[in-house]
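ok posting inputs for the nicotinamide-adenine-dinucleotide job
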Amino acid sequence: MIAPSVQAPSLGSESQDKDTAAEESLLRRLSGLRGARVAVTGGGGLVGSRVVALARRAGASVAVLDRFDAYPEDVRELFGLDRFGAELAVGDICDRDTVRRVVKGADYVIHAAAYADVAACARHPDVAFEANVRGTEIVLEEIAAAPVRRLVFISSAAVYGNGRPGVTGPQVFQEDQLLVPVSVYANTKLWAEHQARLMLGGPGRAEVTVLRYFSVYGDPQIPKPGSHSWMVAWMSMHAHLGLPIHLNGGGVQVRDLVHVEDIAAATVLALVEERAAGQVINIGTGTPTSVREVANLIAPHYPGSRQIVTPLPEGDPLGGYASIERMRECLVRAVHPGARVGGDRRP
Ligand SMILES: NC(=O)c1ccc[n+]([C@@H]2O[C@H](COP(=O)([O-])OP(=O)(O)OC[C@H]3O[C@@H](n4cnc5c(N)ncnc54)[C@H](O)[C@@H]3O)[C@@H](O)[C@H]2O)c1
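and the output
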């Protein structure tokens, strides 16, 4: 775990003391952000809003660029963004003038805006292309033209697809292995990874760090209509409503579930950690969990809940779990020799 366990139920003063100590230690590591300016595209989303909150606690001034239309209006209140004291620009990353305005003067940029749902990208590849490819190209061009120190580009474990051909059972995904995306969403992310490294990172240009998030969970994750991602929220919602929990493809797919606060901590650390510059880094726990296991963890909280097997949706990879060696090297050992990473939060 790299972030304090702010989402976990309180276990009394000892655990609160640990949380406070972890938060203080994290903020010490982020002291380089004090007074810096951070631009966050997609800062109105689940991950973006947690990232903005942390960057603000670290003393950065933050500018957010987001369309704010990925969720119903009241979700914005749930994400709490309006309370963090960030500058908010409501706009599209395809609108160059708005991107320029937000990137101008930024020391660091986190590019998290995306049409961020595998199923929606399969249904609307044109929208996926517009946001994740064309919009990203504009963001990269504007960063290239500005004195930005570092871009952290948010990619996804989806780029690994089904992993190495012919391997059965849970696979560990390593950053340098062959990438075979199996969805429109993953294709757009892989293109953007390559394009970011093509356009930036050279002399006089912003450094680039690519983070491949594994499966994010944690409050306040809101399932999107027609999505099959974000299984913890989906399954819990179904069980809560008395609907059967769907085990797509029998629930044998493997995921590496990472808490959203740990994702936020890794992302903000990636802005400032020296060793993260120029790297592609998995952000996971190194722990494989099958979809069926998640359903079985949720079920006891909803007595009487049922499970049904449903077909594997298009583009839903068999999945795997993160090799976290590089994450340890770049984001943890860099400052904290021997620190523990991930794996101790259960959904
Ligand atoms: N949640 C996960 O499990 C997961 C896993 C891997 C990678 N990611 C990546 O992490 C990032 C954040 O994802 P999230 O889970 O917070 O999703 P999210 O949908 O909550 O956030 C994405 C945000 O981007 C904004 N956005 C989308 N298109 C835009 C555009 N054209 N212009 C401006 N803003 C736009 C949306 O309004 C939304 O607020 C995304 O890049 C996503 O692909 C997420």
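notes: The two ends are 14 Å apart (CA to CA). Confidence is low (pLDDT under 50) at residues 1-11, 335-347.
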